[in-house]
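User: My instructor asked us to take a sequence, write out its structure as tokens, and then describe one feature of it. I'm not sure where to start. Here is the sequence I was given:
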Amino acid sequence: MKKNIVINTVLIICFLVCAVSSVFAATYYVDASASSDGGSGSQSSPKKYIKSGIGLMSGGDTLIIKDGTYQGDSNMLNSSNDRWDNGVPDGSAGAYTTIKAENYLGAVIDGQGSRNPLYLGSTNYIRIENIHFKNSSSSNGGSLVRVENSNHVKVIKCAAEEGYYFGFWFRYCKYVLVEDCLSWGRGAYNFGAAGDYGDYTTCQYIVFRRCVARRDAHYYASGGNHWSSFVSYWADNVYFQNCIDIDGKYVYVGESNPPSFTKAVFFTANGSSNYNAQGCISLNSEGQIGQFEGSASPV
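Assistant: Let's start with the prediction itself. The structure tokens for your sequence are:
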């Protein structure tokens, strides 16, 4: 009887903690069509710029981005030097900090080839949803969605178009879910995870679920020699579940005499532990289905 009382008490406390977190979480709005950035951030008085909306947030809050195209430094989910932005507050297990488009792919964050739209680091319990990212720069990894040194990250129903190197890239991260996302256009890789050379424990438990990749071309970069849809570099327990690769064609951009490239739908470079591709499909793509280099241990 005493054991049951203790268990029930713990459950009640957990419920109350979650309820209190929900009560105090706030929702803010951003609208590119707002006449100025002077709004309060409410639905009827939104901020104009994404970074202004982020500045209002505390852990567990939600920022809703209304339909429109967002360009310039004030609208990137990164810092002014195109690295990560620690202004995005950590959430918690019961209350993720959420940044989402109001409608599916209705908000477009456009790097215009000179900025990387999302570059987050050292940020935990974050959810990104419904956003269309496009046109990354070639600097700092040239990724549309890049997350580093972060744990418990969810990227849901997002799109990555025209990344210089990567569409979605997770480095030194743990417990990441990328679900129902799309990646297409020029770039070396669509979806990938990476840790430290020879130490797979720095990047673990990354799940890409129901994601679709299309490789349209590859920019030339000195020393670059891989081209792949689903890649793992020195990471442990990376899962590609029910993913689709379609119409991947090798079109080389940047040099008249391109080097010989490794072309594979599923790929590990220099090794990766427990690489899993489950229930996936590849249709009409150039190159090999899979190539596993070094000390890789695919499952």
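For the description part of your assignment, you could build on this observation: The chain is about 10% helix and 40% strand. Try explaining in your own words what that tells you about the chain.
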